[in-house]
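pasting input
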Amino acid sequence: MSFRKIINDPVYGFITIDDELISHVIAHPYFQRLRRINQMAMANLVYPGAVHSRLHHALGAYHLMGIAINELKNKGVEINPAEEQAAKIAILLHDIGHGPFSHALEQVLVDVMHHEDLSLMIIKELNKQFNGRLSLALDIFTDRYHKKFLYQLISGQLDVDRMDYLNRDSFFTGVNEGVIGYDRILKMLTVHHGELMVEEKSIYSIEKFLVARRLMYWQVYLHKTVLCAEQMLKRIIKRAKLIQAATRQPLHDFITQPSENTSLEAFCNLDDYDVMAAIKGWCFHEDKILSTLCNGIINRQLLKVQYFGNAVDENLIQEKLADASARLGLSTEEAHWLVFTGEAVSSTYNLDEEHIHILFKDGSVKDISEVDNALINQNLMGKVKKYYICYLK
Amino acid sequence: MSFRKIINDPVYGFITIDDELISHVIAHPYFQRLRRINQMAMANLVYPGAVHSRLHHALGAYHLMGIAINELKNKGVEINPAEEQAAKIAILLHDIGHGPFSHALEQVLVDVMHHEDLSLMIIKELNKQFNGRLSLALDIFTDRYHKKFLYQLISGQLDVDRMDYLNRDSFFTGVNEGVIGYDRILKMLTVHHGELMVEEKSIYSIEKFLVARRLMYWQVYLHKTVLCAEQMLKRIIKRAKLIQAATRQPLHDFITQPSENTSLEAFCNLDDYDVMAAIKGWCFHEDKILSTLCNGIINRQLLKVQYFGNAVDENLIQEKLADASARLGLSTEEAHWLVFTGEAVSSTYNLDEEHIHILFKDGSVKDISEVDNALINQNLMGKVKKYYICYLK
Amino acid sequence: MSFRKIINDPVYGFITIDDELISHVIAHPYFQRLRRINQMAMANLVYPGAVHSRLHHALGAYHLMGIAINELKNKGVEINPAEEQAAKIAILLHDIGHGPFSHALEQVLVDVMHHEDLSLMIIKELNKQFNGRLSLALDIFTDRYHKKFLYQLISGQLDVDRMDYLNRDSFFTGVNEGVIGYDRILKMLTVHHGELMVEEKSIYSIEKFLVARRLMYWQVYLHKTVLCAEQMLKRIIKRAKLIQAATRQPLHDFITQPSENTSLEAFCNLDDYDVMAAIKGWCFHEDKILSTLCNGIINRQLLKVQYFGNAVDENLIQEKLADASARLGLSTEEAHWLVFTGEAVSSTYNLDEEHIHILFKDGSVKDISEVDNALINQNLMGKVKKYYICYLK
Amino acid sequence: MSFRKIINDPVYGFITIDDELISHVIAHPYFQRLRRINQMAMANLVYPGAVHSRLHHALGAYHLMGIAINELKNKGVEINPAEEQAAKIAILLHDIGHGPFSHALEQVLVDVMHHEDLSLMIIKELNKQFNGRLSLALDIFTDRYHKKFLYQLISGQLDVDRMDYLNRDSFFTGVNEGVIGYDRILKMLTVHHGELMVEEKSIYSIEKFLVARRLMYWQVYLHKTVLCAEQMLKRIIKRAKLIQAATRQPLHDFITQPSENTSLEAFCNLDDYDVMAAIKGWCFHEDKILSTLCNGIINRQLLKVQYFGNAVDENLIQEKLADASARLGLSTEEAHWLVFTGEAVSSTYNLDEEHIHILFKDGSVKDISEVDNALINQNLMGKVKKYYICYLK
C-alpha cells in the first residue's frame, strides 16, 4: 500500500498527501513555521474567525493544484508524475518567504526584499537540504520550465493561490459573498498553445470571481479598521527600530540591525509569536508613541480611521496632529506617528498586467474584458483609490 | 402558551409560524396547491436538484419578511402587529396566482392575465372567505397603504421575494456563485422618508446581489437547455389548444375554451400534475408535432438549441425547417412548431424601472449606480439580448 | 478529448459522467422516468424541501461509487476499467424498479413483486437493448461476480446507496442531525479477503452513521404525519382497485387488472404524475371513502395520527370507528378505511442480517458491535416498534 | 436609534450586540485577552483549522444565549430585560478565567485553582470596575439567583457553552460528524418548575447531541496526537518551573514563583503568545529535556503515542525508558519526562452528575436515559478509559 495521509479541512473536507517527498517538505520546520503565521494579519480584530494560518492556506492551494492537474490530465493535457509532484511542491512553498503577519509587515521587518524573493531563497535552501529533489519545482516556480501553464497555475490570474485564499478567507471571515465557484472554474481550466485558459462556459463564474475579489478587498482586506490596525503594526516595528526598543531573539536582530546583516536562518525562525510577545512587552515601554500603538493593538483600542473619496483635508490633519500633541505631550513631528494619512488602492482587473483568456468552442481566444456584454469594462479596469486618515480617538 | 409551528427548511434552518391567521392561510387548499407547482419549471432537466415548490419559496419569503420587519423595528421604524401580520400574509400570497410551471406557461394557459392579476383576484377571494381579515394585506399588496416601504418589501429592487428565490434557486441548483449575502442586506435595510433603502455599508453586498442575479439569469434561468425545454412546453399547450387535443379536467377547459370562459375556481385546481399527466398521454398522440414535443419533454430528448450574439442566420433557419419537414413529413408552416427562433433578454439593473437607494451616514441618498466606483455602469444597465434557434437534433 | 459531462449537485458539488455507455444508460427513458418519482414519497408534507427525485439519488450514489472505487484502487485493490464501469452502472440502476412514490406504494400497485425484482427485470431488458453491454453490471448486481466487495458497495451495510440517501435526505429535509461523515467513511473503506470492510480509525464515524440513520428513521421516514400520509396513499390505491375507480392509462391497467396481467413496458411508463393526477380526479369521486382520502392528500387535510409504546387501546379504536361511521354514514367495516392501526418498526443495527466489519491494524476483524466500548449494544440491536392509530380529525 | 453592532461569524452568520453595557464588557482588555487564547490548545497540530480563539467561542455562546432566551420568552417564560442582560454577560464571561492554552495548562501554570474559580475572581473584579452593574450576572453565574434555569443555561447538560463549543469545534476542525442540531434543541427548550428541560420532540436531537459529543471526544479532544502534544506542553511548563528556566514577564513570575504569590492582574496579562514565545526560546535551552520537548512542539516532531484498552505493559515502558536514557544520556528518572503513561477518560452521559430532563406532553418528566428505546444505556453511562504511552520516536 502506498504512502497516504489525510488532513481534515473545513473548506474542502479532506486533503490527501500521497507522496513521500511532499510529506517530508510539509514536515520540514521551515514549512511548519507557517503554522505560526496568521494568513490575514490583523483582520481578526474585525472578523474574529479570521485566524487561519498560512500553513492552512498552503495546504489548501496544494489541494486545488491536485484537482487542477487532474482535470487537465483528463482533458488530455500531458503532465507526467514528476511534473505533478513538482507543481504541488512549488505551490506548497509559494508563500514560504512570508514573515510575521505576512503582507502587513512585508518590507518593514526585512526591508530589502519582497516575500517572493525570500520564498525563492528558502526554496533554494530546501532544495540543497533535499539533495536537488526540488529542482523541477524551482524551475516551475521561477517560470523557467517550458510548460508555462504550470507556472500560471501558481502565479497568474487564475492561479490556485488566489482561488484558495478567496475561498478560505471568505470561509473563515464568514463573508459569504466572497464565495467563488472554484470547483466550476477548476473544471473549466484548459491549456491552449501551452497557456492556461478557461472554457467559454465559465465566463460568468470568472466574472463572479473578479467581483468577489473586489468585494473581499473593500469589505475585508481594506476594511478601514483592519487597515488601521495593520498600519499601527507597521509603525510599531518602525518605531521600535528607530528607538532600538529592547526585545528578545530571534526578533532582536531584525529590530536592531540592518536587514542585510540578518541571516536566512534567523528569518526562518521568526513568526507572529515573536512579534506579538514583543508588542505585549512594549505596552509598558517608556516611549509613549510605542506604548500607545502597542496598547492599541493588544487591547483593541485602535486609532480612529476615516475613508474619503479625495485627499484628506489638510485642516483636519492639522487639527488631529495638534490634538495628539497636546494630549500626549508630543512634538508635531512625533505626533505623525499617531496621526497619519495614506491611500488604499485596489483594482478589480488590471488590463496592463492581467489577462484571463477565454477559449471559445470555435478555437478563438478572447480576454475576459472583450467578450460580449462583459461585466469587466473601463470602469472596473482602472484602479480604485481611497484616502484615509488615522488619528487618536 | 401562544400558537407556534416550526417548519424545517434546508435554506434557513427553521421557519416559525406563530400566528393563527397565518397558519390558516397556509392550510388553505389554494395555498397548498403551490406544493404542486415547481418553482423553476423545467430547470430540473439541467439542474436535477431544482425541484423545489412554489410553496417552499413562499414560506421562505415569509421567513425573510419576518427578519426584515424585525430589523426595521429594532432600528426604530414603527410597524404595529397588524401591519406585521398583513405584510407577512401579503408575501405568502404574492405568487398565489401562478399556474402550472409558473412563468413558463404564463399567458399561455390563461392568455388574458399576468400572474400578478390572478394573485390579486385570488387574494380578494380569500379575503372574502376569511371575512375581510386579509384587507390590510390586500392594501399593502396593491401599494395602497401609506407605509410604502411595506409594499417595497414585497415588490421592489430589494424585496424579500427576490432575495428568497435567488437564495433558494442557487441552493437547490447547486450554483453556489448565485449565493447572496441576504442576511447582511437584511441587516442593512432602513426606512428614510417612508421609502425602503439600504445603509452605506451594504454597497458591496448589493453590487454582489446584482451580479449574482445576472449570473443566475444566464447560467440558470436562461440556460439554453432550460430555455429550450420551456419553449417546447409552451408550444405543447399552444398546439394542444390548436388541435383541441383531448385531456381531462381540470386542464380540459383551459385547452378547449377561451380563457375568459374559465373560472377562478377551476384555475385554483390546476397544477403541474395535470399538465405533466396530459403531456404523458400526448406522447402517443397522432399529431406528430404534439407527440414529438411531448416525447421530448418526457424522455429528455430535447430540441437542439444554439445561442447567437446576433439575429439567427436566415439560411440556417431554412435549412433546419427543410430538414424537419422532410424527416417528419410536415409542411414548412407546420415545421415552425419544431424549428423556431427567439430572443432571450436580461438586464442586470435597469435604471428606467429600478432604483436601489443608498442612505449615507450624512443623510444623503444616492442610487447604487451613482456611488463612487460603482460596479453598475452604462454597460450593465442596458438589456442584454441573445438570439436563439431551436431545431430537431 | 474524452467524453465528459458535468452535472451540478447541491449535495456533492459536481457529478462527472466520463463514459459514453454510462451516459447512454442515463439518457434512456427508463432512467429518465426516475425524474418523475419522488425519492421520499409523502415526506414533503412535513419537510417541504424533500421533493428530490429518485434520479437525483441514483446520480448521487453513482458519484459515491466513483469515489469509493478510486479510494480502493489507491489502496492497491485491483479493479479494472470494465469492473468500474459495471459497478457504476449497477448502482445507477439499483432502484430502476421503483414505481410511483417508491416504497410507499411498493407491493400495492404491483402486488406480486418487490422493487428489487423489478429492478432486475428492467436491467435485463436494458441489457438486451444495449446488446449485452450491461452483463457484467448484471452479474455484480445479482452478487454472482467473484469480487464480492463490488456487490457490497451496492447492497450492504456500508453501500453507497444508503450513504447517498442519508446524505441527500438530510440535506433536502434540512434535518442536519442526519448528516454523516460519508467522505471519511469512503476514505476508510478497504477490502480484506475479498470483503468490504472499514479501517479501525473509522469506528466513531460508523457509529455516528448508525445513529444518524436511527434518527432519520424516527424523525423523518417514520415521522407520524409522513407515515399517516403514506398509509392514506396506500389505501387510496387499494380502495380504487376495490371499487374499480376510473382513471387513465398507464395507471388504468394497474388499477383494474391483476398485476400479473400488466406489462413491464407499462410499468416503465408509470410515475408519480399518473398517481397524483388520478388522486386529484378522485377528490370528486362519489365513493366517500376514496374522495375523503384523496382530498386529505391533495389539500393536506390528513387523518389524525397518534403513536403509542404499546398496542392501541381497543376502546379508542372502537370510539373512532363509531365516530367515522356516524359522520360519513359508513358501515363499521367501511369505517376501517379511515380508522386504522398498525406498527412502525425500525432497527438501528440488526445483528442477524447486518455486519459492519472493522479491520484492525493488527489484521484482526471485528463486528462494529464487538469493539471496545461499542455504542451498538443489545439495546440498539433489537427492533424498535411503535404502534399507531389514524382516524378522522 | 438604539446601540447596535454586528459581528460576522462563520458559524452563525451574524452576532448582534445591542446593549451598551455588554459592548463595554466585550471591549474590556480582560475580555480582549481571550483573543490570544486558542480555544483548542494543541488540536491544530492535527486539525489545522482549529485555531479559533476563546473570544470567538464566548461570543458564540452569547449568541446562543440570546436565541435561547428568546425562545423561552416566546413560550411564556418570564425573563425581564435585566435578567436577559445579566445572563448574556454571565455567559460572555464564563471562561474569562482560562489561561494560556486553556484546559491543557489548567492547574499547571496556576496550580491552586480551576479556571472556574479564576473566572469568578475576574468577574468580581470586573463588577467592581463596572460599579456593581454585573452583580446580577454574578448571582446567576454562581447559581444564587432564584431562576435556576438561567444558571442551567450557562452550566448544565444543555448549556449554551457546550452547544457552542461542539458547533464551533466541529466547524473549525472540519469534523462534520460532530455537528449537532443546536437550533432544534434551542427551539425545544422549556422551563418546568423552574428547571430547564426539553420537549418530548427533541429526544432524537438530544441523543444525537450526546453521540456527537462522544465522537468529538475520541476523534478530536482526545485524539492521540493532540493528547500527546498537550501532555508535552504540560511537561514543558513543569520542567521549566523545576529548573527555573529563564523567560520574560508576564510568564516569568508564574514559572519562578509559587502560584499564591502571583497576582490576578498578572494572570490577566498572560496568554498563548507568552507561552509560545518562551517555548521558542527554550528550543535552544541547555537542558536537553526542556529543549527536546520544546522542539517537538515548535517543529511538530512529537513523541510517539499509543493507546491501549488496558494498562500499558510494564516491559514496554522499561524498554522505552532505556532507549530514551541511552539516546539522550539521561538518568532513568529524567527519562520519565519523555517516556510516560497515563489514562484518557470520557463519559458520554454520567448518570451520577448529569441529567437531561424530557418534559412529555402529558406533563411527566423523564431522564433521557429512561425514555423508551433509549440510546443512552448502561453501556454508555459508564466512563470510557483508555491507556496511553508516549515515548521518543
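fyi The mean pLDDT of chain B is 93.
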